[in-house]
Design brief:
about 20% helix, single chain, globular, Jelly Rolls
């Protein structure tokens, strides 16, 4: 799939669809399983080292603008980053959202970025369970992840998705998700955002 974006971006993207279903079992106690639920996850490898370095530099320079007061219990930028590198990534996300909307709903979405932010996780930092409804699509991108990264957990499926450095993942925004605590001393960088429709 190829599209010319506002940032003169031209890329060939191979978007892969994965339908995640319940991957954990348990019984008794407070464990609740929601069998039959599925999250459709769209994955695209980007692997742009210069973009990754620019994203991480911005996240490092800005520092923690949220004071760990959001669902993200790690260093987090402002909600609506306006840097050129983030705009390039946002254009890719809009391309993926158009593809996903046609694939999932047979709908020609006119996407707009509602918000986009950066995160840097250190040892024991995590994100608590949350969802992004009423947005349509949510996404994450990983400029750098440690070898033993915790992945992306869809709490109410339940399913744990191992993520890859240099890849973007997109899902419908009503799905609850979280990030388990990071183990070890390496840093985990993430850019996340939400997509709505141009009205």
């Amino acid at each position: 799939m190829e599209e010319q974006g506002n940032t003169k971006l031209k890329r060939e993207l191979n978007v892969v669809r994965n339908d995640l279903t319940a991957s954990m079992q348990g019984q008794g106690g407070d464990l609740k399983l929601y069998f039959g639920n599925t999250v459709t996850l769209y994955e695209v490898e980007i692997n742009d080292q210069q973009m990754d370095m620019d994203l991480m530099s911005y996240i490092d320079a800005v520092g923690d603008k949220q004071g760990h007061q959001t669902n993200v219990k790690a260093n987090m930028t402002e909600w609506r980053v306006q840097s050129e590198t983030f705009r390039v990534l946002a254009d890719i996300a809009k391309m993926v959202a158009k593809h996903a909307s046609m694939d999932k709903w047979s709908y020609n979405l006119q996407p707009r970025i509602h918000d986009i932010w950066g995160i840097r996780y250190q040892t024991n930092e995590y994100t608590i369970e949350h969802a992004h409804w009423p947005s349509l699509w949510s996404f994450t991108y990983y400029p750098q992840i440690p070898h033993n990264h915790p992945g992306l957990y869809f709490n109410r499926i339940p399913a744990l998705k191992k993520v890859k450095q240099g890849s973007m993942y997109m899902w419908e925004s009503h799905h609850w998700h979280s990030v388990p605590p990071l183990e070890g001393n390496e840093l985990r960088y993430c850019v996340a955002g939400n997509i709505n429709e141009i009205l």
